[in-house]
Amino acid sequence: MSSKSFVLLRKLLKVHSISSCRLFSSSAVYRASKRHYDLLVVGGGAGGMSVAATKFKGISSVGLMDGAQKHYYQPLWTLVGAGVKEFAETERRMKDIIPPGVDWIPDAAETFDPEKCIVKTAKGAAIGYKYLVIATGMQLDYNKVDGLVNALENSPKVCSNYSPVYVHKTFPCIENFKEGNAIFTFPNSPVKCAGAPQKIMYLTEWQFKKMGKREKASFKFFSPLPVIFACKKYAQTLDKICADRNLRCYFKRNLIKVDSDKNMATFQNIDDPKDVKSHEYEMLHVSPPMGPVNVMMNAGTLVNKAGFLTVNKETLQHTRYPNIFGIGDCTDVPTSKTAAAAAAQAGHLRKNLSAMIEGKPLGSLYDGYTSCPLTTGYEEVVMAEFDFELQPKETFPFDQSVPRKSMYLIKKDWLPKIYWDKMLKNGSFSPVYPNPWSADQRRFAEILRIMESEGFDFKWEDHSKEVFASIRKIRSDHAFADVTLHSGGRNFVAHKVLLAASSRFFEDLLAGLPANKCNVLVLTDVRPEILRALLDFIYEGESSVGNNLLEDFLTAAKKLQIRGLHSFDARKSRKRKTSGHLRGSTQENDDDEVVSPGRETAENTPVNSTNASESNKPKSMVLGPSVSPTTEEIDTESCVQVKVETGEGKEFDDASAEWVEEETCADGEYCEEGNEQEEYIVDLENSDMKIPPEVSRKFVSSVPRTMPSICRESNFDISVPSHHSTCAEFYLSFRTVLNTVMEGLPFIEGRSSSGEDVLPRL
Ligand SMILES: Cc1cc2nc3c(=O)[nH]c(=O)nc-3n(C[C@H](O)[C@H](O)[C@H](O)COP(=O)(O)OP(=O)(O)OC[C@H]3O[C@@H](n4cnc5c(N)ncnc54)[C@H](O)[C@@H]3O)c2cc1C
């Protein structure tokens, strides 16, 4: 952002640092005639607004005095500066958030008279009170650093998240950074949110990485303190982060001057004031000196020398005037000044002021709880929570010194919501959760755990039970059936997806059938009662089979490779790939054996089979649109019918590694005239075949989905489109390729039995 546009923005915004700007208006909320309140709250920030929102017994009138037109949720400015959040999310018009029943006095307190219980305002009004809560926060003293205001006003390289004006400069500073030092400072004064000066450093580093310029930047963090963070537990994490990411920390150094013409920042050694060094910067983020607002500096017996309201650090009652309480940054409570601290204090203040009103002793004791969500990078926060003794006081059931995404989400999304919707509306929000964890809090912890992960797991506890109950019903209703199994003159409607899921045999077979047509599978050697029992098993997971059918049932189950009744490892065998040449034999019995649909291995042979040689027979699938079924129940027009012989019709000669297609229409039952399959012989055992890639590509593109295992065993990278769907076509294609490659013959046009082109001409 150029300095001109920045000045323009400043004019447009018409806001200045929180305490220096008081724009007065004649708000309808303020009844000018009222001059006395049971409870007067001075300062409508995080602390004051939450006290004003609290209902107190015995208090009939509440006045809230604050001359600012805007209320800011300052903790989010860190993310605004980093380019993560919009500034608009951090501000509300004061008049829109004044709690119902509370009079807003849009005026600034100018003097306090605690003896007479009167506050005089900048506009000259004198407001009396019975009880007074002071919550004036802190003001920013940018002018305490030589040249800083000029630099902030005029240099695009200098920014500060601490002000609602200068926070707009931070992200442009990050974006415009070219090469050099990125310097971040901590003030030599009390500070609100002691983590904020370094949070923006981590976020800037993340942004630089994202923008690809991290290598061009040297990060330097200057602090007058001897350590990076007061609470040791979190300091350890932060020290490590700085070391790992090469973020150099200079302790006991205080920013005393900024020369924006030369882009130089000058620091003084706290222990040795003569030790003064200047560092050139390409980007300078300043956390300015801060202190009590002017009215407090002059508040006499109400404040300590520095101008902080003196209160009992536990009860928050004034040390001298019992009807006065203090909350937030303006007090001398020795804890880290944060909105979280103010939120915790609000709970104790409410109880103690109530006790005071009722004439009871003040018994609610604040332990110094404060919290600082340290954004250590994009989507990670170390959620520091600790007390007066700097002892961790952690809310969540995990180690909060670890940077976590869940804590980042809390900082970014939850805390702002809690602030606007809870803390400012009913003042009752207290961020401290008691131990042991209640059921609700455990649930909350579980949500946090989920937030930590990348995604969400959903589990349907009774999934199989409920799905199978539905499937059973669907079956009995004959709903959604998309395939017919035909056996012994009987039809069984079924569902392809279930057949495929339950049987490797069906899976391979069905994969090759046209998806948009009704299909009839004619099982020639599976008796209907066996088929019925197998379908029961597939649909119900169980089946009752009489002794007399047992052997046939198991034999058919093995042949059809029904899962649960057959131990064939489909996935494993699919991975098989041989190298160099196609193999004619698939009859090996090793673990990786590849088995084509319907073909048996010795392993698959029924133990009690009386005809071992039969189990070695490959099964045939004779496919073709013109095959006629034997039963009238099958609609020959709309269905593609598939005759499935589970043990007959083909011979496989293992010794010569030859496939021999027998006359599959021998029985005449399923063949129409003129539709006989051609005989073919493929002998590849000893071939040294090298298939040129372009031939291989053509070949592969024409291979039907249902190709037998000989293809799967090949070294082709087979990704097969489904438009050629019959084995007959495949065989034709295959022979065509072989002719071309092995015999050097020119490519011939292959035709399937249906007359379609199998291979295009080369
Ligand atoms: C960049 C940044 C990051 C921060 N990050 C966090 C964080 O992550 N977590 C966290 O908990 N806290 C954070 N804080 C600190 C937090 O915002 C403050 O500690 C908190 O707002 C203090 O509340 P308060 O009510 O004491 O003061 P404020 O919220 O500052 O409110 C003071 C109010 O008093 C009014 N006032 C001043 N003078 C007078 C007068 N004479 N008469 C009447 N009214 C007056 C002001 O207009 C103002 O409305 C951050 C602050 C900043 C600037």
TrEMBL record:
- In what ranges is there compositional bias, type Polar residues? 603-615
Localization in the cell: Mitochondrion
Function, as annotated:
Catalyzes the oxidation of hydrogen sulfide with the help of a quinone, such as ubiquinone-10, giving rise to thiosulfate and ultimately to sulfane (molecular sulfur) atoms. Requires an additional electron acceptor; can use sulfite, sulfide or cyanide (in vitro). It is believed the in vivo electron acceptor is glutathione.
Q: Return the Pfam families for the record.
A: BTB, Pyr_redox_2
Q: Where is this region: Disordered?
A: 571-638
- Reaction(s) catalysed by this chain's protein: ubiquinone-10 + hydrogen sulfide + sulfite + 2 H(+) = ubiquinol-10 + thiosulfate; a quinone + hydrogen sulfide + glutathione + H(+) = S-sulfanylglutathione + a quinol; ubiquinone-10 + hydrogen sulfide + glutathione + H(+) = S-sulfanylglutathione + ubiquinol-10
**What are the BTB domain coordinates in residue numbering?**
481-547
Report the main location listed first in the record.
Answer: mitochondrion
> What is the similarity comment for this entry?
Belongs to the SQRD family.
Q: Which InterPro entries match?
A: BTB/POZ_dom, FAD/NAD-bd_sf, FAD/NAD-binding_dom, SKP1/BTB/POZ_sf, Sulphide_quinone_reductase
Annotated GO CC locations: mitochondrion
Q: What is its EC number?
A: 1.8.5.8
Name this polypeptide is given: Sulfide:quinone oxidoreductase, mitochondrial
Family matches, as CDD domains = BTB_POZ_BAB-like
Query: Keyword Nucleotide-binding: yes or no?
Result: no
**What Gene Ontology biological process does one annotation of this record name?**
sulfide oxidation, using sulfide:quinone oxidoreductase
* UniProt keyword terms in alphabetical order: FAD, Flavoprotein, Mitochondrion, Oxidoreductase, Quinone, Transit peptide
Which cofactors does the annotated protein need, by name?
A: FAD
Q: Spell out the molecular function terms from Gene Ontology.
A: FAD binding; glutathione-dependent sulfide quinone oxidoreductase activity; quinone binding; sulfide:quinone oxidoreductase activity
